[in-house]
Amino acid sequence: MMKFRFRRQGTDPHRDRLRHDLFAFSKTVEHGFPNQPSSLAYDPKLRIMAIGTKSGAVKIYGAPGVEFTGLHKETATVTQMHFLPGQGWLLSLLDDNTLHLWEIYQKEGCSHLEETRAVGLPGRPGFDSANCSPSITRVTVILLKSACDVACLGTEGGGVYFLALPGLTLLEEKTLFQDEILQSVPDDYRCGKALGPVESIQEHPQDPSKLLIGYSRGLVIIWDQTTRTVDHLFLGNQQLESLAWEHSGKTIVSSHSDGGYMVWAVNSSCQKTQQPVRSTIPYGPFPCKAINKILWRTCESGNPFIIFNGGMPRASYGDRHCVSVLQGQTLATLDFTSRVIDFFTVQGTEVAEGGFENPRALVVLVEEELVVIDLQTPGWPTIPAPYLAPLHSSAITCSYHISNVPLKLWERIIGAGEQQSPRLSSATWPINGGKNLAQEPTQRGLLLTGHEDGTVRFWDASGVSLKPLYKLGTANIFQTDCEHNDSLNQAGEEEWPPFRKVGCFDPYSDDPRLGIQKIALCKYTAKMVVAGTAGQVLVMELSDEKSEHAVSVATVDLLQDREGFTWKGHDRLAPKNGPVAFAPGFQPSVLVQCVPPAAVTAVTLHSEWNLVAFGTSHGFGLFDYYRRNPVLARCTLHPNDSLAMEGPLSRVKSLKKSLRQSFRRIRKSRVSGKKRVNANSPSSKVQEANAQLAEQAGPPEVEMTPVQRRIEPRSADDSLSGVVRCLYFADTFLRDAAHHGPTMWAGTNSGSVFAYALEVPSQEKFSERAVEAVLGKEIQLMHRAPVVAIAVLDGRGNPLPEPYEVSRDLAKAPDMQGSHSMLISSEEQFKVFTLPKVSAKTKFKLTAHEGCRVRKVALVSFASATSEDYAENCLACLTNLGDIHIFTVPGLRPQVHYGCIRKEDISGIASCVFTKHGQGFYLISPSEFERFSLSTRNVTEPLCSLEVSRLQDTSCLSNNFTATPKLPQANGTHVPRSPEANHSPADSDRSPEEHQAAFSPGPADSPNSSMENPLDTTGDITVEEVKDFLASSEEAERNLRNASEDEARPAGILIK
Amino acid sequence: KSTGFGAEFRRFSLERSKPGKFEEFYGLLQHVHKIPNVDVLVGYTDIHGDLLPINNDDNYHKAVSTANPLLRIFIQRKEDADYSAFGTDTMTRKKNVLANVLRTDNHKKKPHIVISMPQDFRPVSSIIDVDILPETHRRVRLYKYGTDKPLGFYIRDGSSVRVTPHGLEKVPGIFISRLVPGGLAQSTGLLAVNDEVLEVNGIEVSGKSLDQVTDMMIANSRNLIITVRPANQRNNVVRNSRTSGSSGQSTESSLPSSTPNILTNFLQGEEESDEEDIIIEDSGEPQQIPKVVRTSESLESLTQIELLHESTQNGFLPSSEINLNHSAGSISMEYEEHNPDHKSLEDGTIITL
């Protein structure tokens, strides 16, 4: 994955060493909510939770900062996961019917997650077990015995198989077939039919030898493993969905496909039960959907909790995704915006006196978020999650990162956030296993995401878990079609069922014009600029008090007197008349609206000069927000460019664009090639329709044949050449070498750069004198590639500090003595020019040499790993191929480059944002940011430990540990390994002996297989990789030795 | 052409020991440049960078013997020639000389054109590096600069058969898929449909995607050098037909090495001058970039023909080279405003820096 290539004369050993001290690439942690979760598991002993996804990822979460990520070698949906409680082992079932055992093990003081064993279970859906018995068919349910020694697998064919743990070997003599059950079933019940697939297996809460087994047809039995007899028969006739024990073992509850559940008494005196004690259809009497899962939890303080999902009236609420919590007469129908995947309850670690379970919290995993309900506080409020933030509650449209946030601003933002959502529940986060060993973050990092619905969300990105801090809405100052804070939360008094909206995922945007395009924030003055799709530019100030005021509105005509253009796109957003109430937090002071109201493509802010600059596809403007008047407007349109008027930014097209994006999202989500499980859910229907629409509406390809490319230089009248790509303020030498002063720079899509000298009055005279802008220079890059970024370097070659950074002693003053230079990055090349006389100093033609184009650039300060105070400013660049290149500044010498994002992942590349100190974020799915590090020193990765007490001797497993710093990315960039059939679903006509063989470790477990991992991920092998590889095989050897030592120790030792 | 020569840059070799007579050399130059009936003034730069004339056997021999190893020869049409350019330190003080030349405009009678403007010396598209390439390959330079013609070709994905250590293997390749009628590629006849693209400006394309190669070609579009394996192998340039100068299209070389690095460096050095950015300094109102910069002062480039005099075994030269030395500096609009009596040069042009 990592490619080092030192180009040109990279032979200077000193420089090579320095490079090693400065640069290192790693993907460190995934922030946000896993894309397309498919299964959930909880370990009540270790208090950790696991989420599996459709792409085969396994993510384990405990206390904030305790995180593990693993990825199955196959890209297959993780259909089930089960912890061996307290063991640090996790058994996962994929939908290719393979079982995988994961282990959390300790190495160098930290815990790591690794797949240790996999077995393939032959059999596919629809496999006819009758013809080929005994055969393991498709697994439907898994139960891990509380003793952690046996896994019971219920199958589609109706058989129950037992595997020894942790070796995953089949205990053939224990296998339980339906024939054996049917012998004890009365003839009239049998009526010649099979019992159907096993739907549920539950261990007796008090007597581990007894298993409760339920079959699809409705038969439920209690099976005594020791005597191999049927203890009890419950002759249900309703199609069974799930089963649960009451804690004492005296009652069981079964849920059914008709939306009802039944409570059965376990009466030891008689062997058969014909009728349940109670049978109800909670949302009847009209036909209801199935109750997929049901839990029964006893409670000291009153009636037991019955918690189930589904069961909604088919006709009226069949499309809702609900979990119902019923305690006595109290019923809450928790209404989610996406499909319920699974849920569990969290109890106190030890069972209270009297055998009560006393559930503390209900944890519900839905497709787009995780919701935790406090069951001990009346009203069952939600507990805010410290991680797994649903980043995509509205689609992310842009992101912005601020490093080294001053404490004061930090506290004010947190304060604003707390007032926004008062904590309803006093309960602490219940899933708090493990210990976070990572150092406290040395500095506060703030990540801002702009969303489609006009909100800006503030995230604490300082550490491993991304925490929501504050949410800013901009929709309330505009008149939009539908009011916000609408009826969603106001449940009608008499409404039945008693729906309660929970969660925050809201995929629908009221008005696409509200979408946030660009954000800029000054961390010293807490001034912020937010710009959106309809040309709106909002200047905001942070206020700790709530306020009600009118927002002053200004319009800036960017077309100037350009004739012959008519805007055919969307209208501008109409601001509300009169005063608007604002909560404490960022409050808008001025609204600048661009004419025509095209999406804002660039924005920048200089809080010391009270200036904000903004650009669209038509031109750019400069606005003095202190005096509230425009300073400058400049049209950048080329006369021949007609597309800018009706181009992709108009209303029709922007709708198409968002459709296309959602289409892309669907496509992306189908990377695994699996169809969604419930294709009938309304949201997926909408998406499917969207996808079809997008295909129809998509503009015809420019080329007739897709595999043909025209070779022509760019010309001035290419479409959208006037799009303003970047804006920049600098205090530098523009007009002569003797006097420096405020300047503004703008770069366009056609390679033009405009530089203005600004006359900014001194602080005291802001109100008296207006700011003036005088065009100083125009530069036309001959290659006409879009200008991605502009920066001015001081006499020492360092980037100029931010406003107020110097006056507040937070940065060294720039060198104003030496001559300044200007770094212009276009999509094709980097160039450094001298100032004030613009002449080319150095350049690097990236596209001409590498065939890739620049997508994102940032000036990054890299600190050395070895010497404390050595740091270097470099240029980091992400290309359209997803590679990251680092160059020296101002020499523009290439240093290293790394493959980071798949080149097909266009939205991932577009979403990338670099931090000032060598980290970065990009979206790997609509809901997840991957965090990466380019620096050796500045790395934020999970570092945690989990105390595991093993009951089993681990020696049989320990032959295969390899050191994998981080597994391949869980989503998106997963490359399927070579299909070596290590545990592919075997042919159905195997003999029993062969099945036995199939359970033995596959080739993946052979010691040699460790070789595959480091080598097959990259084409270029480097010294580093070879070292890594050697290290990992040494590690394996060491582990092997440890393992043999372990064998000598008694079982049940505590491994830290 | 009315104001000067078209782009005529030739690199050829002479035997240092037997330079021959000036008349022969003069004839050769006329022949090479296909200007048999035009009177020209021949000059060269000596080791000190002075521009000295060649007009008799003596200074011709002197020029050849002092060449080290490259002899740069300048040819100017006699009637346009500027004699004041000759003299000591002309090259090192080129800017000054030129500036003087330009500043003295006022007291000169006729419109003073020292050397034609760069666009008049437009280099032409050609086949290059014939000697360092296998005969099955062809390296083509498409020189876009100064023409209105589009490059005029399309590329596509395809597969080609390669000889590898494992025998014949089919590998993906990039091919010319279509030529636009009237485009540079079609009108010069240098590229043909189904030619396989092997290199772009010295960088191999194998392993690169169609989009990458497209981007590389566009990034180099002003001076695009493509190495192809022509689909039609019958028209290959036959090596060792050393009729130097007979075909203005190909210049030969005996450089044994064909490593791309050499080419790359070579091209990079050359590139420095191939495309430069326009800078307009302005203290006035915001205005559009003029398509044509009207200017009274332009620092002209001396256009040179470089004669590589390398003592390689057979005396032939590595390759053709075009060297447009543009002067650095900015065009100041202010000057123009303050000096309205300045005359503009006839040749309005995009000023490149």
Oligomer: heterodimer
| Overall mean confidence score, pLDDT of chain B | 63
Shape of chain B: elongated
Question: Residue-averaged pLDDT of chain A, rounded?
Answer: 81
The number of helical segments of chain B is 7
Characterize the largest beta sheet of chain B: strand count, sense, and whether it forms a barrel: 7 strands, antiparallel
Structural class of chain B: alpha+beta
The number of distinct β-strands of chain B equals: 14
Whole-angstrom Rg of chain A: 32 Å
Name the beta content range of chain A. Answer: 35-45%
Residues in helix, % of chain B: 10-25%
**Main beta-sheet strand count, sense and barrel state of chain A:** 5 strands, mixed
Kindly describe this structure:
Chain A has 1056 residues and is mainly beta. Helix content of chain A is 12%, strand content 38%. Mean pLDDT of chain A is 81; it is low at 1-10, 124-135, 484-492, 647-691, 693-705, 953-1037 and 1039-1056. In chain B, 18% of the residues lie in helices and 23% in strands. Chain B has helices at 22-32, 57-66, 94-103, 184-188, 210-219, 260-271, 333-338; strands spanning 40-45, 51-54, 70-77, 126-128, 138-143, 153-164, 167-179, 196-200, 203-204, 223-229, 278-281, 302-308, 323-325, 331-332. The longest helix of chain B is centred in the last third of the chain and has 12 residues, at 260-271. The chains are: A mainly beta (1056), B alpha+beta (353). Chains A and B meet through strand 48, strand 52 and helix 9 of A and strand 6, helix 5 and strand 11 of B. Strand 52 (772-780) of chain A pairs antiparallel with strand 11 of chain B.
Write a short abstract of this structure.
Chain A is mainly beta.
Explain the layout of strands and helices.
The complex is a heterodimer of chains A (about 1050) and B (about 350).
Chain A: H1 13-22, E1 23-32, E2 37-43, E3 48-53, E4 57-61, E5 67-71, E6 78-84, E7 89-94, E8 98-107, E9 110-120, E10 139-144, E11 150-155, E12 160-164, E13 169-170, H2 178-182, H3 187-190, E14 198-203, E15 210-215, E16 219-224, E17 229-235, E18 240-245, E19 251-256, E20 261-265, E21 272-273, E22 278-280, E23 291-299, E24 302-310, H4 314-317, E25 321-327, E26 330-336, E27 340-346, E28 361-366, E29 369-374, E30 382-383, E31 396-402, H5 407-420, E32 435-436, E33 446-451, E34 455-460, E35 467-473, E36 499-501, E37 516-522, E38 527-532, E39 536-543, E40 547-549, E41 552-557, E42 580-582, E43 585-595, E44 602-606, E45 611-615, E46 619-624, E47 629-635, H6 643-646, H7 651-669, H8 682-697, E48 708-711, E49 724-732, E50 741-748, E51 752-759, E52 772-780, E53 787-793, E54 821-826, E55 829-834, E56 840-845, H9 846-850, E57 854-863, E58 871-879, E59 883-888, E60 894-899, H10 906-910, E61 913-914, E62 919-925, E63 928-935, E64 944-945, E65 948-949, H11 992-999, H12 1012-1015, H13 1023-1048, E66 1054-1055
Parallel strand pairs in A: 17-21, 26-36, 41-43
Antiparallel strand pairs in A: 1-63, 2-3, 3-4, 4-5, 6-7, 7-8, 8-9, 10-11, 11-12, 12-13, 14-15, 15-16, 16-17, 18-19, 19-20, 20-22, 23-24, 24-25, 25-26, 27-28, 28-29, 29-30, 31-33, 32-64, 33-34, 34-35, 37-38, 38-39, 39-43, 40-42, 44-45, 45-46, 46-47, 49-50, 50-51, 51-52, 53-54, 54-55, 55-56, 57-58, ...
Helix pairs in contact in A: 7-8
Chain B: H1 22-32, E1 40-45, E2 51-54, H2 57-66, E3 70-77, H3 94-103, E4 126-128, E5 138-143, E6 153-164, E7 167-179, H4 184-188, E8 196-200, E9 203-204, H5 210-219, E10 223-229, H6 260-271, E11 278-281, E12 302-308, E13 323-325, E14 331-332, H7 333-338
Parallel strand pairs in B: 11-14
Antiparallel strand pairs in B: 1-2, 1-3, 3-12, 4-5, 5-10, 6-7, 7-8, 8-9, 8-10, 12-13
Family (chain B): Belongs to the PAR6 family.
Subcellular location (chain B): Cell junction, Tight junction; Cell membrane; Cytoplasm
Keywords (chain B): Cell cycle, Cell division, Cell junction, Cell membrane, Cytoplasm, Membrane, Tight junction
